[in-house]
Amino acid sequence: MTATRAGSPRGFYAIAHRAGNNLRHLEEALEAGVDAIECDVWHARGRLSVRHERKLPGLPVIFDKWYLRFAWGHLSLPRLLREIDARAELFLDIKSRSPRAADAVLDLYREHVSMMPHTLISSVQWRLLDRIGEAGTDMELFYSVGSQSGIESLLRRCARARPPAGTSIRQTLLSADAVARLHGAGLRVFAWTVNTPHRAEELRSWGVDGIISDDLGVLNKDLASGV
User: Fold this and answer.
1) Which has the least CB within 10 A, 10, 47, 124, 216?
2) Partners of 55 in the beta sheet?
3) How far, in Å, CA of 30 to CA of 71, rounded?
């Protein structure tokens, strides 16, 4: 499986950011025909949950930088797999730091292999991705980069025996030269989070392989215009 799904009319890999965290957003993204559904995965109390926000220990409250709210229960990954039903690929972003999060993802893969679409996994916790890579599954690993120094570290890592499939990288770090260097190391480049058509077009002109966006209009702009 290449970075662009077979038959995709876009010419790039379209990832619906956080669409897997909420059933309404999930269905909207699936109806839009995106290539992959992105969801944020946390490990707590021996199980995985899907949400972008952090959770207060022992309380049904989740929070982010600017808000907190009650959350009675979380979407489970098995349910997410049932809802996707092979209509898109899966892009898991592991948020937890514990190695148990990697083990839980591997358990999910083994226990639900018949339901799993082609799956890509990203994380800023590279050691978790290393742990998953050692298991020898067909899940592809995209090492997340959020700083300039991270690009250099990732390029050095590409010399290892088991290099990453690609990088999920903050879009503000990218330039034509940076994309060329990452491609030269054999990496596919997915840019996050890209929410304006102009920026998406600029990134694509540099050869970026995938766009991660909250805005389905950005992902489907060419489809709407007939380009």
Assistant:
1) 47
2) 62
3) 24
Cβ pair 35, 91 in contact under 8 A: no
In degrees and rounded to multiples of 5, residue 86 shows phi and psi of: 65, 15
If you search the block for the tokens 């948020």, which residue do you land on?
95
pLDDT tens for 94-135 read 999 999 999 999 998 999 998 899 999 999 999 999 999 999
**Identity of the residue numbered 9:** P
d(CA 80, CA 78) in angstroms, rounded, equals: 5
Name residues whose C-beta falls within 8 Å of residue 112's C-beta, 6 or more positions apart in sequence.
Answer: 77, 78, 81
Paired tokens of 35: 């290539």
Helix (H) or strand (E) holding 171: none
Global pTM reads 0.85
Joined tokens for residue 72: 């009675």
Query: β-pairing, 54-55 with 47-50?
Result: unpaired
Amino acid at site 165: A
Dump pLDDT digits (tens) for 181-220: 999 999 999 999 999 999 999 999 999 999 999 999 999 9
> What is the distance between the alpha carbons of residues 94 and 128, in angstroms, rounded to a whole number?
8
Q: Count helices and strands (H / E) in the chain.
A: 9, 12
Name the E strands within the chain. Answer: 13-16, 36-44, 47-50, 54-55, 61-63, 68-70, 89-94, 119-123, 140-145, 166-170, 188-192, 210-213
